Amino acid sequence: MTDGVSTALDTNGEGVGAQARGMVGSIAGIARHPRAKAPMEVIDHVEITVEDGLHGDFRGYVKPGGKGRRQVTLLERGDWDAAMAEVGHDIPWYERRANLLVDGFDLPQIPGTRLRIGADVVLEVTRHTDPCERMEALAPGLFAALTPDWRGGACTRVLMGGIVAVGDEIRIEEP
Question: Which end of the chain has fewer CB atoms < 10 Å from its terminal CB, N or C?
Fold first, then answer.
């Protein structure tokens, strides 16, 4: 620590400090699915809780003794657009099966980084979101297009709950 900001390194060897400080984006979309392989439901606001993650999404519930490493998943609009350009398709973002689409914000690639959404919600990045075989079924080459540089998004656990709505700010939560 030099100036009160962690000097942890991201996957490119760069510190999160100066590049992330003050960066603000917005929530551009919210989606959930009540069970595995169910269609995604796009909504404009949702409650997020420590116990259940994103309300109505089957991945959010933390079993007793569980770690909740994938309660809420986030995807950068720019990364999705780049993957779509790479495979030559125009598939809606929610087909990635992520919960929150973020715009104008570079998701930190450092587990343990805290993100604040709106006034109340705080999420902790736990790991990148691995693409699955469903992506290849959507478009040949999509699995590979989502693999580099956390392009598939970030998994998070909920530290503080609240209501999230499309248009809410997202930013790094300083320690």
Answer: N
pTM: 0.84
pLDDT digits 0-9 by tens, 124-169: 999 999 888 889 889 999 999 999 899 999 999 999 999 999 999 9
Residue 39, judged by CB atoms within 10 A of its CB (0-12, 13-18, 19+), counts as exposed
Domain ranges within the chain, ordered by starting residue: 17-172
Indicate the pairing of strand 162-165 with strand 45-49.
antiparallel
Rounded CA gap, 8 and 30, in Å?
Answer: 29
In which residue are the tokens 């994103």 written? 54
The CATH number of 17-172 is which of 1.20.120.330, 2.40.33.20, 2.40.30.10, 3.40.50.720? 2.40.33.20
Beta-ladder partners of 122:
116, 160
pLDDT tens column, 37-49: 899 999 999 999 9
The DSSP result for 62-77, as a single string, is: PPTT---TTSEEEEEH
- β-partners of residue 124 are 114, 157
